[in-house]
Amino acid sequence: MLGQASVVHSALELPDAIEDPAGTSNQEQAGPIVGSGADIVRIVEKNLIGFRVYDLSFNGDGAAPSFDVKSYRGDRIWNTVVDATTRQIVRSAMVMSTSDLHGEDRRNIDDFKRSRMALSEAIAIAEKYGPGNAISAGLHHAGGRLVFVVVVVSNGELKEIVIRADRDKRGRRLDTENPVSDGALRAPA
To answer: pTM of whole model > 0.70?
Structure first.
């Protein structure tokens, strides 16, 4: 089973540099269509061998829209900037040691290291059930479990989709009968 995804409609406004892929936004279109967030994560993991991405965020400030991608390798945290239009890595730099993390950040990374689910997989699920393109994704805890919170642009609106990161011993996604919020979507088997 692929588990559960819950959708929360957000009152947030779309960033100025994002075009609505469906062409339904009333906002003036100011930038390129942002493609799959899962693709951005895969680009970083393919080009930076051994890196595991745990956070994605769209940055529409400045002349060229980009994605900030946080990852770790070994005991180091890295930040990589990917141009949203060309899909090219602009720069990548080590920003801290994982031992410098504290509190919730440390717990999230420790749990993610034990998780078998990749952020790109969670984003792909969210983009399918959003439906739309992810502009942000990260780690959180809900009900004592690690979840991925993915923000998807869908029909001119931002939707927050929560993907459970649990898997059973055989690597299958768990699908427990936990209640999900109104508007929730359950991923099929």
So the answer is: yes
